[in-house]
Design goal:
By secondary structure, this protein is of the alpha/beta class. 50% of the residues lie in helices and 8% in strands. The chain has one domain.
Length: 285
């Protein structure tokens, strides 16, 4: 991805090296659950993060951890450029729709972080909190993306950011609020099916961003889209469940299968049109 000459966003909040008051201590089933949940991108933190508020805390040994490495600084710089690109693309899309895009803040953190959705550990992976309209990322996740999820490449990293920003777009359009309202009215099985459509739409929005960003700045290099598709294929519910426990339970899917995630990213990328991302109206996902 050609990113080094791109604009840097001013909407990055760097909390790296900070310890949250009291620190975090947890173990057993709670941490296992968080680790499993962390394998999924775009999780609705309001469903999980409050678990962390019930964890015991221990005094933090100092207010800061080690300074970021050169590698981490480059990753932060890269994310700032990707965030700026999402700002430019979605500002254009909202203007076309007669609206105004409200830019979110992206928070970089180390280990654990407090958000309007509660307390989160880095094991949960990147997430969007609708309560404060911020995206949270621990850069250590990108090592897991490469080494544990077999999804290397800078555009795979960009896809992660674009997916989370897709959830912000859903928030601004009122889509996510409507979906979350259904949680109190539907069974867990029924709500999971709606959640899948929400996540696949965020994948489609990520594809729309990739299409338009390339037209704006000619950022794509050979193999970039393949990197994004590879990442999407490695984070499907079916593949992750098979990897984690050896079998698959379709009724528990919340993000969609690998094939579905790839399909909807490609749908958004091929069209560049937000209107092509109506996963809720689609008969077949």
């Amino acid at each position: 991805m050609r990113w080094r000459d791109g604009r840097r966003s001013s909407n990055v909040e760097d909390r790296r090296g900070r310890r949250i008051p009291g620190g975090v201590k947890g173990g057993g089933i709670g941490i296992i659950l968080l680790a499993l949940v962390g394998m999924y991108f775009g999780i609705d933190p309001s469903l999980i993060l409050n678990m962390g508020q019930n964890m015991q805390t221990t005094p933090a040994a100092g207010s800061r951890t080690a300074q970021p490495s050169a590698k981490e600084q480059q990753e932060a710089d890269f994310i700032s450029v990707v965030l700026a690109d999402t700002e430019d693309v979605w500002s254009q899309v909202f203007r076309e729709m007669g609206g105004t895009y409200k830019k979110p803040t992206l928070v970089l953190f180390t280990g654990a972080v407090r958000s309007a959705c509660g307390l989160a550990q880095s094991a949960m992976g990147p997430f969007y909190c609708p309560g404060d309209q911020k995206v949270y990322i621990d850069l250590a996740f990108y090592d897991d993306l490469k080494n544990q999820l077999d999804s290397p490449g800078d555009f795979a990293q960009a896809y992660v950011v674009a997916h989370e920003i897709g959830h912000h777009v859903q928030k601004l359009l009122g889509i996510s609020d409507q979906v979350h309202e259904l949680q109190r009215k539907l069974s867990k099985k029924q709500y999971n099916k709606i959640s899948v459509r929400l996540e696949l739409q965020a994948d489609c929005f990520a594809g729309v961003w990739a299409n338009r960003d390339n037209k704006m700045r000619n950022v794509l290099e050979p193999g970039d889209i393949e990197e994004a598709l590879n990442a999407a294929s490695h984070i499907g519910d079916d593949r992750l469940q098979k990897q984690a426990r050896g079998y698959v339970t379709p009724d528990s899917f919340t993000h969609g299968t690998s094939a579905q995630r790839v399909r909807w990213f490609k749908q958004g990328f091929s069209s560049g049109d937000i209107n092509s991302c109506d996963t809720f109206g689609a008969k077949n996902l």
